[in-house]
Structure formats: structure tokens, C-alpha cells
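Changelog entry: the Fimbrial assembly protein FimA record was regenerated in this release. Current contents:
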Amino acid sequence: MTFSLAVRDGDRFGMVASSSSPAVFARVGHLRSGVGAAASQNVTDPTLGTQLLARLAGHGAAQRALAEVTEAADHIEYRQLTVLGRSGPGFAYSGSRVLGRHASAVADGAVAAGNMLSGEHIPDVLLDTYAQATGELEERLITALKAAVAAGGEEGPVYSAGLAVVADVDWRVTDLRVDWADDPVDRLAELLDIWLPQRDDYVRRGLDPTSAPSYGVPGDL
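Regenerated C-alpha cells:
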């Protein structure tokens, strides 16, 4: 139903996810600059992602945040959660009623998890591919997502995918989604090719419009 990867890269956090469900990233992906990243998936309760980030913002301990949220939440047996903080490894939780074949994998600065998977190897594929990939953070994330799909991904086809990165400003410097398509990961990669060369210019536009480049459209700066 969903597989995801969250990573820390210096002071940046990034996440990718894909699913057979529409608009997966609107529900699953949660990131906050300077705090961390969290995913709430399976029978998804998006509030659990925001709760994990709120706990992280309060005390900074990812494992403690996960324990606090899972102990307090209703229907937690249906949920699959991941969380990653400013230091150390990521952590994952899978409830007793998570759907299908499910698995998770963690490393220093990373966590991957999925449900309704073709095999329990998929989270390891996400982590291993990301660790070996090169390029910008977003490019490494999309490389990992492509590898997970190629390795089998979900039991059935996926139809949506998303990618987001937070850095040193209070908004997502990258926030891309394909909400319904037969080839969502390839479409997401195409969007990234368009977006990435302009990413830093749009950050500059937000911080200082006087120094930002013009794109030559009517009414532009």
C-alpha cells in the first residue's frame, strides 16, 4: 500500500514515498526544518506524523517520540510509523494489523518502511541504494525510490508518489507530487528534472526578492 524513505543530510531532511493509493504524500510525508521527518502510513492517520514532529521539537529524541505517540494513539495496531531526528538512527513501528507483507529498516540518519510489499527486502533496497547514490539529496532519494520499484515495490502497481526536502528555511524547498498516474515514480523524476535547477532561485525569491532572478513571464519581477 505504501513504502517510504526518510533521510537526514547535514541540516536537511528529505523523504520519498509511493503507493497504490492516490495522493499518498499528502497524508504520509511530514517534515519540519531543524526538527526532523516522520511518516504515518498503512491505514493512515496523518495526525500521528504531526504528533511525532511535535514531540521531536520538544525534546529531540526520535525513539522517545515514537514511544510516546504509539502509547497514546487510538487504533495504533493499524498504523505504520517512522521517525527521524537531528541525530542518530531512524526508528519504525508496525502495528499488529498492518496490511500484507511489511518491513522496515533503519540506519544512522535514515529509516525506510513499507506495507503490502512484494518482499521484505524493499526497505533495505531503499536504504542501500540511497547510501550508494550520488548527486543532490533529491536525486539520491528518487534514485532509491526507482530502485525499490524495480526490486518489486508493492504487491501490485503503484499510482502515486511524492518527494519533499526541508533545509534552513521554514518551508519545503522541494515539494513534488504525482497524485495519480500509471508511472508515478518516472513522472516524479521528470518533475524533479524541471524543478531542481530552479530550487535555489525560488528560495532566494522568498528571502530577498531584490536579488532573485526574473523568469521573464508577464508581470514577473
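The first helix runs from residue 24 to 28.
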